[in-house]
Amino acid sequence: MNNYNNIIGGKEVKSKKTFTSFNPFTEQPIAKFQASNIKDVDKAVSAARAGYKKWSKIPAPKRGEILLEIASILKKRKLELAKLESTEMGKILQEGLGDVQEAIDIFEYMAGEGRRLFGHTTPSELKHKACYTVKQPLGVVGIITPWNFPIAIPAWKIAPALICGNGIVFKPSSDTPLCAYKLVKICEEAGVPKGVINFITGSGSEVGTPIIKHKKIDGVSFTGSRSVGEFVTQNAGLKKVGLELGGKNPIIIMDDADLKSALDGVIFASFGTTGQRCTAASRIIVHKNIFKEFEETLIKKVKKLKMGNPLKSSTNIGPLINRAAVEKTHKYTEIGIKEKAKLLCGGSSPDTRGFFYKPTVFTNVKPNMRIAQEEIFGPTTALIKINNIKEAINIANNVDYGLSSSIYTNDLSNAYLFIENTESGLAYVNAPTIGAEVHLPFGGTKNTGNGTREAGIEGIHEFSETKTVYIDYSNKLQKAQGIR
Which of 353, 363, 467, 473 has its CB surrounded by the most CB atoms within 10 Å? Predict the structure, then answer.
């Protein structure tokens, strides 16, 4: 079993202790990583500060060339990395390939931003005076990522942070550190100077908290649970903070919808990645006129889903990330039964090795039940019956989260009412609640985050500051706001 180190200042650095990562399918150990501490964080921050001072002086178009090289290497190693995701995270191979493709796409997109990083110009209210804005890096940014998209989510943060000229302290999830390590090594291979990206592993309390609180870190970008997001907000101080904190995402299916398309979308959104997506569809809101037909057909399709080795092409559902995730998913099954929802299928773990849980569907679900309100992050979804579009939208909005929402309908009125009134950062019509494209903003409302967005031009905003510049070439004192 290999022992992997932190990467600080371009060097492999050990800490005093190690921890072990596991394969969620075989439950066997994969590798050992450093269980770092606050002293390691301090070293990483110092290295990132030195790296930032050099990296930020490289012209942004030249930084973009390095990002393009990262994308090129990712393309060459796409299958290798996807297999690693299946091994370390449990994602089925096709989804692993998609995860790596997202990383390729975001590095390519952000490479192009190296020739933009647009500010804007505007007329002055005074004669012989120019006014414009420019983008500048924050300085050193802390990046803390989850395990469910172990290459894509780090890439979504690292790519814009790099193109803006920042130094980085990167802490991945302790469930998927090897995927993160491989991504950092690819960045170095592509030409990112030593010390610009500093990779440090360990627990949230020993590594994550010091990053969040560190006075010499200028910004923190975190993806994870709402409770940790609240901790970040309370402890980060005045540094810039970007949060993406999950969802309780609805799919509305009206009685004029294409049912085949809607069923395919529900299967993919509810059970893809074994339900371990912040955009997973865990509430299916179905019109009463088609409810029974939809319910019966859905259960037939769900029962055909095959759990197993995520590396096999025949597998539809991989394992959950760890034992705690299995236990949490089953806890919500017990809650649903206690709340008098009807369990249609699933609801237990199969008698096999690996952290598996059967795809689970509840019906007769009321909007205020806990299984319809709280994020489960497992292969569980709830069917809710509605009478009309107004009721559907009200139920869809009746949660604390607001990440992604969807409607299946062939009625333009329904579609536009949904778009206008859904309380979410993403709105899909005749598509499931997933599939973000890297040139568009990603993020949510309400308890899904703090208003920041990732990807697209918003990714640049997250990892940069705006400087306003005034140049007075009148050769005399000019007073603004009409002061005489």
Answer: 363
